[in-house]
Amino acid sequence: MNTQTDIENKLKGIFKKVLDIKESEIIPGAKLDEALGIDSTEMVEISVCIKKELGVPLKDNELKKTHSFNDLVGILKAKQ
Prior knowledge:
The protein is mainly alpha-helical. Helix content is 59%, strand content 0%.
């Protein structure tokens, strides 16, 4: 079972890899589409990485561009 900090760190790593961004660009409370310009293809890549690296499968409607980084951490914490 991952702690909240473990989930945050792994999710930051996924974002950095998929989006090719620096960790400092991830704003915890900002909506992903507004803050990072994430598109639907990138959301699918993030979802696949989450399943591989955290072992948490997400349904298509659970991962949305309008979520914030903190929203995703909460979803993943609740699902494990």
